[in-house]
Fold this protein.
Amino acid sequence: IEQSAYQNDKLAMLGKIAAAIAHEIRNPLTSIRGFIQLLRPHLAQLGKDEYARIVIGEIDRANDIIYEFLNSSKPSTPDKKQVRVVDLLKEVTLLFESEAILKGCDILLEDLPSSTTVCVDVKQMKQALLNIIKNSLDAVGESPQSGRGVIRISAAEQGAKVAISVEDNGTGMDYHTQSKLFDPFFTTKVEGTGLGLAVCYRIIKNHGGHIQVDSTIGEGTIFKITLPLC
Ligand code: ADP
């Protein structure tokens, strides 16, 4: 399924709203954090330092989310560097190693061309790939009927481009979901944000790339990304 310019407009708007909201939320968080720091010795006297620690930890987590969100939804020009596709993919999959073991899922890196390079904003591109793989892990986790979860990641040069594919044998999606999945805030998950793929779409478009999905309910899903070579 191809995505239209319509999504781009929605994402640009989302970026502006996100920046405004994040700014407004950050200020009160900073003052809450400050006051808790001031209360900390008193709480410690009451044997409740643990509470202060939790509050501060949660404030920091909220700040991190806002930071990530701002970073990924801001219509920014990518800060590009030349990087080998194989390194990019290896580094991202490494982040999922423990989660994959916990879920009893295999993440397989297959047929990776060793010399192919792309010019990308490494942080952004890792974020985009991470969002796709995270979804695959969720999908195989929810689909025990298909046996052991397998996520296959491969890449191949195609003319002046590299095609990267991420394939899972998870739940798959119906047509409705496939047509909506790049929309900001579209989610079928109880605790989903619906932002992962919207952000991913934006990052890949910002790099002059392309993303499409092919999925069958009960069989699995394949995401194909193409990026221009260096
Ligand atoms: P979130 O993960 O927070 O729901 P995303 O934008 O990352 O947000 O994904 C949107 C929706 O697309 C998911 O809720 C899910 O329904 C669907 N989806 C994405 N990737 C997959 C996949 N690999 N297999 C099945 N469904 C998927």
About this structure: The first helix runs from residue 5 to 45. Helices lie at 5-45, 49-73, 85-94, 97-103, 122-141, 175-180, 196-206. The longest strand covers residues 149-158.
